[in-house]
Amino acid sequence: MNLYSTATSIYCHRTRIVLAEKDIAHECIIVDTNDLPEDLIDLNPYSSLPTLVDRDLVLYNSRVIMEYLEERFPHPPLMPVGPVARAQTRLALFRVENDWYPLAEIIETKSEKAVVKARKELTESISASADVFAAMPFFLSEEFSLVDASIGPLLWRLPRYGVELPRAAKAVQAYAERIFDREGFQLSLTEGERELRL
Ligand SMILES: N[C@@H](CCC(=O)N[C@@H](CS)C(=O)NCC(=O)O)C(=O)O
Known about the structure:
The chain has a four-stranded mixed β-sheet with strand order 2-1-3-4, covered by helices on one side. The protein is globular, with a radius of gyration of 17 Å. Helix content is 59%, strand content 8%. The mean pLDDT is 97. The protein has helices at 10-21, 38-43, 62-72, 83-109, 112-128, 130-135, 146-156, 158-161, 170-180, 183-188, 191-195, and strands at 2-5, 27-30, 51-54, 57-60. The protein starts with a strand and ends with a helix. It is built from eleven helices and four strands. It is α+β, with helices and mostly antiparallel strands. Glutathione is lined by residues 6, 9, 11, 33, 36, 47-50, 61-63.
C-alpha cells in the first residue's frame, strides 16, 4: 500500500495517523506539490494529496481514505459500533472539516488581513468547545477515533498558526497532550511536522 502525502498538510496528516494507529504496513511517499510525480498525475484525476494506492484501488480525499482504512483494517476500531454513535462521529468529522479546517487553510495560504480574522475565529471556536474537550478522554468518546485523528493535526499546528488558546481552554491543551503522546501520533509525524513545534 502506498500513500502519496505532502510533508505538512493536515489532510495528509490525518490519514498518516490512521495508518500508524492501525499499524498498517505501507510506504509513505512525500511529494513536493510544486513538482508532482507523473504516476500521481496518471492515477488521480485531481492530482490531490493525500492519495492512497492499494493494489488496483486508487483513493483520494482524506475522508474517503480514512473510512476505507477503517473498514479494511477494523482493528483497532476508530469508529464506534452503534448507528447513533457512528452518526455522531460523522457529524463531528463534518464539523471539524467544515468549521476548523477551512480556517487553517486560510491561515496557511492567505494574506495577513484574512489570516488575522481566521486566527481570531479559530481561537474563539476551539475555546468555545472547551467543555466538550473536558468531558471525555477523547472527543465525545472514551476511545480514540477518526475525529481525534482529524483534530490532532490542527492542534499540533496551533503555535505555527499563531493561535494561543486562553487559560479558560486548558482542557483543550490537556486533550492535545493526550493525543500527541500517543505512539501512533508520534509515528505519523513527518520531519517537517516535527519542525513545526521546535
Ligand atoms: N478535501 C481534500 C483536500 C486535500 C488538499 O487540499 N490537498 C492539497 C494539499 S494540502 C493538494 O492536493 N494539493 C495538490 C497541489 O497543490 O498540487 C482532502 O481531504 O483530501
